[in-house]
């Protein structure tokens, strides 16, 4: 139920708190999120230090964030599906598989972006 006085800066503060709680839960319960966050923490300084244009730098960083965002959404979908029922249902499997495919696509986008921008610098 929504609090009665939930507008303005109070709403922003509450929303930020919920977001931080979600990040903590993802870190605690989702191995894939931990792995991708550690990888992003390693790759972010590289994106900041490599000699590329500002647009290329933004694309490198955007790819990292996109993987994390899609992984969070995938984890949320999996949690909701698991909450509904433990028994197998084709639609539950479909929802999880499609969310997993979205993570795969974000990883492919990130990898392709990094390769297209950084490989020419190496060769």
UniProtKB/TrEMBL annotation:
UniProt entry tagged with the keyword Transcription: no
Enzymatic reactions: a 1,2-diacyl-sn-glycerol + ATP = a 1,2-diacyl-sn-glycero-3-phosphate + ADP + H(+)
Topology in the lipid bilayer: Multi-pass membrane protein
Single annotated GO MF: metal ion binding
UniProt: substrate binding residues: 11, 32-36, 57, 71, 100
Any single GO BP term: phosphatidic acid biosynthetic process
Keywords noted in UniProt: ATP-binding, Cell inner membrane, Cell membrane, Kinase, Lipid biosynthesis, Lipid metabolism, Magnesium, Membrane, Metal-binding, Nucleotide-binding, Phospholipid biosynthesis, Phospholipid metabolism, Transferase, Transmembrane, Transmembrane helix
Active-site residues, Swiss-Prot/TrEMBL: 71
Residues where a divalent metal cation binds: 30, 78
InterPro entries: DAGK, DAGK_prok, DAGK_sf
Record field: transmembrane: 61-81, 102-122
Gene Ontology CC terms: plasma membrane
Cofactors, names only: Mg(2+)
Intracellular or extracellular location(s): Cell inner membrane
Bound cofactor: record note: Mn(2+), Zn(2+), Cd(2+) and Co(2+) support activity to lesser extents.
Domain of life: Bacteria
Family annotation (PANTHER family): DIACYLGLYCEROL KINASE
Function: Catalyzes the ATP-dependent phosphorylation of sn-l,2-diacylglycerol (DAG) to phosphatidic acid. Involved in the recycling of diacylglycerol produced as a by-product during membrane-derived oligosaccharide (MDO) biosynthesis.
Name of the protein this chain belongs to: Diacylglycerol kinase
Organism: Shewanella halifaxensis (strain HAW-EB4)
């Amino acid at each position: 139920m929504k609090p009665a006085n939930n507008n303005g800066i109070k709403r922003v503060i509450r929303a930020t708190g919920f977001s931080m709680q979600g990040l903590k839960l993802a870190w605690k319960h989702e191995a894939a999120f931990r792995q991708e966050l550690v990888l992003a923490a390693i790759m972010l300084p590289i994106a900041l230090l490599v000699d590329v244009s500002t647009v290329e730098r933004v694309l490198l960083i955007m790819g990292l964030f996109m993987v994390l965002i899609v992984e969070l959404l995938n984890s949320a979908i999996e949690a909701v599906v698991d909450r509904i029922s433990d028994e197998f249902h084709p639609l539950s499997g479909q929802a999880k598989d499609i969310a997993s495919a979205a993570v795969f696509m974000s990883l492919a986008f990130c990898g392709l972006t990094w390769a297209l921008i950084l490989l020419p610098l190496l060769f």
